[in-house]
Amino acid sequence: MTATTDGSPGTPTHRTPSASSASAQEPVPAGSIEAAAQRAVQRAAEHLLARQHPDGWWKGDLETNVTMDAEDLLLREFLGIRDEQVTAASARWIRSQQREDGAWPTFHGGPGDLSATIEAYVALRLAGDSPDEAHMALAAKWSKAEGGVAASRVFTRIWLALFGWWSWDDLPELPPEVIFLPKWMPLNIYSFGCWARQTIVPLTVVGAHRPVRPAPFGIDELHVDPADPNPKQRKAPITTWDGIFQRLDQALHLYRRVSPRSVRRSAMNACARWIIERQEADGCWGGIQPPAVYSVIALHLLGYDLEHPVLKAGLESLDRFAVWPEEGVRMIEACQSPVWDTCLATIALADAGVAADHPALVKAADWMLGEQITRPGDWSVRRPQLAPGGWAFEFHNDNYPDIDDTAEVVLALRRVAHPDKGRVDSAIDKAVRWNVGMQSRNGAWGAFDADNTSPFPNRLPFCDFGEVIDPPSADVTAHVVEMMAALGLEHDPHTRRGIEWLLSEQEDNGAWFGRWGVNYIYGTGSAVPALAAAGLGPEHPAIRRAVAWLHSVQNADGGWGEDLRSYSEREWIGRGHSTPSQTAWALMALLAAGERGDSVERGVRWLTENQLPDGSWDEPYFTGTGFPRDFSINYHLYRMVFPLTALGRYVRSEPFGAGHRGAPALAGAEKTEKTEKGA
């Protein structure tokens, strides 16, 4: 495995095509869209090649929202390890993200979010900001208007309880004894998605201890009525699911008061073992910040000293989530995406015409091959006989490989002429067997687990923080179908079931829902290339309906964009400011469908006209999805890899699925590669 990065671009590992080699291209009329696209491809490829780390990987910053920064500061305050420089730098970032109305959003250009605003506010109070300062007074006023602390999410109120700002009695209860529930029982820990599971187990320990580190100030200004901060709410009727689970929560509160000490102690110890067994080699848990934060707190409450190797490694891993976008400003990533970014960058460069045996692609393949996971993880609870072979999203996450990354890595490796073909073939074989084995009963694929579809976890009052299960999705299923088709397995029964499920999931408007990207443009941009690769022709009704929908939502400027509000407000579906990545997804679908008309040319022109001088694109809008409606992501490499992929496929003018086998579209790419091999 590889050490993590702070998000810096690294140093080039090779020379990129030179200006002199670019001039050797066949002259193209300067005003044509094809010529503009070729120039854009050349610049974008050079830019992306220059960002490759010497070890072979790519990683862009992963931007989310200020709850990551606030909770990092709250953790350090709670543990007594506050650093003034870190506090000041994080506070600067938090302030920079505040809206004019005083609130903090969860994505660029989005509306204010109550929980994010409260967490940002208390973090800034701890950092030294006075409640009388204008930006703080605005935040408090906005929060009260939105319902105050009582209306915020459970996670937010847990953090407030840690400092005495909220009563533990007024939080939903989930006891550590949940660790003992058998795997067949509803609400056992494996019925939760892996990200929720990794968060809930340590939080049951925290909730059982109910620690308080009193803050030096109160937050009455965030309550609608400071005299009654948590007004009683009427329960739902017992005949409804909400009513049933509200009364279950009541019963769990009662159980807390009567639970046998020996059982509680055994549960705590079992949770500690579960947490420690899942700590990764770099000290983190799951490669993501929230489970790591709660695991550190839980183990510390269980008696682990901060200098204990487990906690010391855990705290050091949290430091690696810090990105310093400018001097004196610190942003926290929720996780890091090197495997995902590397396979997407490899696909983009190959589809743009970089030679298959170019040193950059070979080095990327080498690194990806070294990241394959060959031991069982939590996924094996449902698939105990399945041999491992997947890839994770992050640098270190052997417990949780995911099906999406695995499919895209296989697609990337297929595009590289690696000198050790046997090693590549063996890795691909293991990966395909693992992905096929992770197919859910309905014929589709989720991200981390098979058949993770229980309706009960989302009903728990404790679980109001976003998606807590991992059902199959159109985008992941599409990528697996595309992988199978690339291997000549489009007629395999597993592939056919995936295709049938995809076709059944197409919406009436012709689009597909996007689970891990925003939103219908991402889902459609994933599904159409997969179906085309699997043999559905341009005239297939599903393809025609998707094409018609993409035409209907194209912006007047020629690009495509979709706001994150499309997850909750239907009027936003397919609508939003044009972005490079979403324009690329639409183009990838249209090109796969055989389209080459005005709509495609307008989209290509938008990309070429909005390219920056350095070959990249600017994309402040978030186009990645963590949890629909609740957690959004701006992958900083998306703005580079997807436009390059789309433009490369356009320039090469080949049917999708064959593009990476054609002659290089990049001037000088083959010549540069040979020169480097001889150097």
Question: What does this protein structure show overall?
Answer:
The protein has 679 residues and is an all-alpha fold. It has helices at residues 19-22, 33-50, 67-79, 84-96, 114-127, 134-145, 154-162, 194-209, 241-258, 261-277, 289-301, 309-319, 338-351, 359-370, 403-413, 421-437, 474-486, 493-505, 520-533, 541-552, 580-592, 598-609, 638-652, 669-678, and strands at residues 62-63, 322-326, 329-332, 624-627, 631-635. Among the domains are: 65-332, Glycosyltransferase; 487-636, Glycosyltransferase. The strands form two sheets. Strands 1-5-4 form a three-stranded antiparallel β-sheet, with no helix packed on it. The chain has a two-stranded antiparallel sheet with strand order 2-3. Strand 2 (322-326) and strand 3 (329-332) form a beta hairpin. The radius of gyration is 25 Å and the shape is globular. Mean pLDDT is 92; it is low at 1-30, 655-665 and 667-679. This is Squalene-hopene/tetraprenyl-beta-curcumene cyclase. It comes from Actinacidiphila guanduensis. GO terms for molecular function: intramolecular transferase activity; metal ion binding. Residues 41-325 form the Squalene cyclase N-terminal domain.
Q: Which structural class do you get from the secondary structure elements?
A: mainly alpha
Supply the CATH class of the domain at 65-332.
Mainly Alpha
Provide the CATH topology of the domain at 65-332: Glycosyltransferase
Q: List low-confidence stretches.
A: 1-30, 655-665, 667-679
Terminal CA distance: 29 Å
Oligomer: single chain
Percent in strands: under 5%
- With helices defined by DSSP (H or I, 4 residues minimum), what is the helix count? 24
Spatial strand sequence of the major β-sheet: 1-5-4
> What is the radius of gyration computed over CA atoms, rounded to a whole number of angstroms?
25 Å
**Quantity of strands, as a count:** 5
The CATH architecture term of the domain at 65-332 is: Alpha/alpha barrel
What's the story with the biggest beta sheet? 3 strands, antiparallel
Average pLDDT over all residues: 92
What's the helix-strand series?
A: HHEHHHHHHHHHHEEHHHHHHHHHHEEHH
Estimate percent helicity.
Answer: 40-55%
